[in-house]
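Fill in residues.
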């Protein structure tokens, strides 16, 4: 009864979808619409397999979608202004982004999934998603995510912050030498 995505964060493993096995690795995005039989396993006793899973309850009726594996999402990163404005020390910069419109793959109210690379010292200033909740997941790097008046800093285990629609938030790269990579996933909510 749920639509699910898996974003492979670290390691390698095997995904079996509707009985068909295939390898998965860090950076892969797995799209599993409702009704998809799937499992994932780590064959290595030494290396961890880490992934983010997000699932949404799908409507009882509606179109049936096919499962999809989008391999190596980071390889699609390109400079773009398709995200929110960013800057370094007051100067506007373009971010490297790879985006997927998840609403084209599911019947639940998914929005956009964006893998975003923020350069050293860069910041995406205060912005609001007015019709979507946003899940901000730190894939790699040192981040500070400010939501309203609350500050969240990533550590060696990463960071995952859910931001309700309409709430101002920002994402800053705390490193002056390494890029920050975040996964931003929006989910539509019915407006009152």
């Amino acid at each position: 009864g749920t639509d699910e995505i898996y974003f492979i964060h670290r390691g390698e493993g095997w995904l079996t979808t509707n009985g068909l096995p295939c390898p998965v690795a860090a950076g892969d995005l797995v799209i599993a619409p409702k009704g998809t039989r799937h499992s994932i396993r780590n064959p290595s006793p030494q290396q961890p397999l880490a992934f983010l899973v997000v699932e949404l309850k799908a409507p009882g009726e509606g179109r049936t979608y096919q499962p999809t594996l989008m391999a190596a999402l980071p390889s699609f990163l390109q400079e773009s202004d398709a995200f929110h404005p960013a800057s370094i020390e007051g100067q506007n910069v373009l971010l490297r982004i790879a985006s997927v419109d998840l609403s084209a793959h599911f019947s639940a109210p998914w929005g956009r999934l964006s893998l975003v690379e923020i350069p050293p010292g860069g910041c995406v200033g205060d912005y609001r998603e007015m019709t979507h909740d946003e899940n901000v997941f730190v894939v790699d790097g040192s981040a500070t995510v400010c939501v309203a008046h609350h500050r969240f800093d990533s550590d060696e285990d990463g960071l995952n912050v859910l931001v309700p629609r309409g709430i101002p938030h920002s994402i800053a790269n705390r490193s002056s030498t390494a890029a920050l990579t975040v996964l931003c996933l929006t989910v539509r909510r019915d407006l009152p």
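The mean pLDDT is 95.
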